[in-house]
């Protein structure tokens, strides 16, 4: 069996023996397909990703040569001219065919997303973290796609460390957790969750003074590094420790497992979770609207080759898009922002005005701030670049369907800074009547946090956060999370550059 590891030195083994994968760029072909998680990567994207400074004249034939040599290494016993079974042709490019258990980073991600009782989470996080042998994809750190994926995997690793610690606290293993949490908080001093877990572990180990000292260290670091105080969560924890609040002495009461994992990092692919009924999750139905046939073809390939996605229809202009959406009732619409007859922004407004509208993601080649801000106000779930890699497009679709806003906080801050003073008769009313817990959630939404991240930050159940978000939308007369981000800035609840 062939196995792949990118969580540390990049290595491929056949029946336990390492394979010679050739030179750095030839290895990069295999690594790029691994990052795509089984999805087809067009040859044009492979060329751009392997030669970001400009491809050589014979780039296509060079890629074909790399693929041929890699196939011989991966399947040495394959008969000449027989079809490859691992590195396969998947027009308009290539794909890696492997199971989750064969690829360490796929297996890691599956384990890191485990839900359930504390004991099950502890076991899965231990197994996930044991797969790491060093920085992911370090050999290809100078390539943008590898750096992006390495950053995503590193964030999942840090979350897995914190989830393991949370499970350990619930299992009564506080004292044993302290050394690892000390190292974690010291290595990542701006992660509030690390300090919360460390302080809680110290307190439950009978070390109240050290617990308060940890929180004071966190405050000092945040003030020196950011000029900010930690969030209300750590401040409330400190107050509870000073008053020796009884709830700190006991692990939180465990509820039923939550239904899934939300966020841009929750892309599907190998290891995607089933629905609550225990069967396979219903396919996410997608309409693609773009006036360029080549773009529609590329997106059709991405959707057709991705498990759990289904193409519900296509449109070449805004008017067609509205008709196709009303006829097919999809879950999601990928909508070009500039199209003939009726532009994407106007089409989006009309689609979102219907009863029970689908989620809408705007596609753009470059995108002006004016267009992006208008789309935010209209209620779209976010934006993707047409040049995004297939796995990024899939992650965007799944995140939007899960209710998350695809908005980078830095982008939001820049846009709001430029246009927040622009009058809009349809802007949401002031936030009068909202309770402090609702305002806390709204602030965190504006910072780009998912429901799950908000629940962990505020130490409340996921279901409570979901109900609060629904209540905010209802109170403000909005229907999409992205509009809540705009509302938080426009009403002054959050200001550009405010990270608290």
Automatic annotation (TrEMBL):
Gene3D superfamilies: 3.40.50.2300, Tetratricopeptide repeat domain, Winged helix-like DNA-binding domain superfamily/Winged helix DNA-binding domain. One of its GO terms (molecular function) is DNA binding. The keyword DNA-binding applies. Residues 1-98 form the OmpR/PhoB-type domain. Keywords: DNA-binding, Phosphoprotein, Transcription, Transcription regulation. Residues 1-98 bind DNA. This is DNA-binding NarL/FixJ family response regulator/DNA-binding SARP family transcriptional activator.
């Amino acid at each position: 069996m062939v196995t792949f590891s990118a969580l540390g030195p990049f290595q491929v083994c056949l029946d336990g023996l390492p394979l010679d994968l050739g030179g750095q760029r030839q290895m990069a072909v295999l690594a790029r397909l691994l990052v795509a998680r089984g999805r087809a990567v067009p040859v044009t994207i492979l060329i751009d990703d392997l030669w970001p400074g400009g491809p050589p004249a014979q780039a296509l034939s060079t890629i074909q040569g790399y693929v041929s040599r890699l196939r011989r290494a991966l399947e040495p016993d394959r008969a000449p001219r027989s079809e490859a079974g691992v590195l396969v042709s998947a027009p308009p490019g290539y794909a890696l065919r492997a199971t989750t258990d064969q690829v360490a980073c796929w297996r890691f991600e599956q384990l890191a997303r485990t839900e359930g009782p504390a004991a099950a989470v502890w076991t899965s996080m231990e197994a996930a973290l044991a797969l790491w042998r060093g920085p992911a994809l370090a050999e290809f750190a100078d390539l943008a796609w590898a750096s992006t994926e390495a950053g995503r995997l590193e964030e999942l690793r840090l979350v897995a460390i914190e989830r393991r610690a949370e499970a350990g606290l619930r299992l009564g293993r506080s004292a044993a957790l302290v050394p690892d949490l000390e190292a974690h908080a010291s290595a990542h001093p701006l992660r509030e969750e690390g300090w919360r877990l460390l302080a809680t572990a110290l307190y439950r180990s009978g070390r109240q003074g050290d617990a308060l000292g940890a929180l004071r260290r966190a405050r000092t670091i945040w003030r020196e590094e950011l000029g900010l105080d930690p969030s209300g969560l750590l401040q409330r924890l400190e107050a509870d420790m000073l008053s020796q609040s009884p709830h700190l002495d006991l692990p939180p009461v465990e509820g039923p497992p939550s239904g899934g994992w939300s966020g841009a990092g929750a892309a599907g692919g190998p290891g995607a979770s089933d629905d609550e009924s225990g069967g396979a999750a219903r396919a996410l139905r997608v309409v693609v609207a773009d006036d360029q046939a080549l773009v529609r073809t590329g997106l059709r390939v991405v959707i057709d080759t991705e498990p759990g996605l289904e193409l519900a229809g296509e449109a070449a202009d805004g008017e067609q898009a509205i008709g196709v959406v009303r006829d097919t009732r999809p879950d999601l619409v990928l909508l070009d922002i500039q199209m003939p007859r009726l532009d994407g922004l106007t089409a989006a407004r009309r689609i979102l005005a219907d009863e029970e509208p689908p989620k809408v993601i705007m596609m753009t080649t470059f995108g002006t701030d004016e267009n992006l801000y208008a789309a935010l106000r209209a209620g779209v779930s976010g934006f993707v670049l047409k040049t995004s890699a297939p796995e990024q497009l899939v992650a965007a679709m799944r995140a939007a369907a899960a209710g998350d806003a695809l908005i980078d906080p830095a982008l939001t801050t820049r846009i709001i800074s430029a246009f927040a003073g622009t009058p809009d008769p349809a802007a949401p009313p002031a936030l009068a009547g909202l309770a402090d817990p609702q305002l806390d959630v709204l602030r965190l939404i504006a910072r780009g946090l998912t429901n799950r991240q908000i629940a962990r930050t505020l130490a409340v159940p996921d279901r409570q956060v979901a109900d609060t978000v629904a209540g905010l939308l209802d109170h403000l007369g909005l229907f999409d999370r992205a509009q809540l981000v705009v509302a938080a800035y426009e009403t002054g609840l959050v200001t550009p550059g405010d990270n608290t």
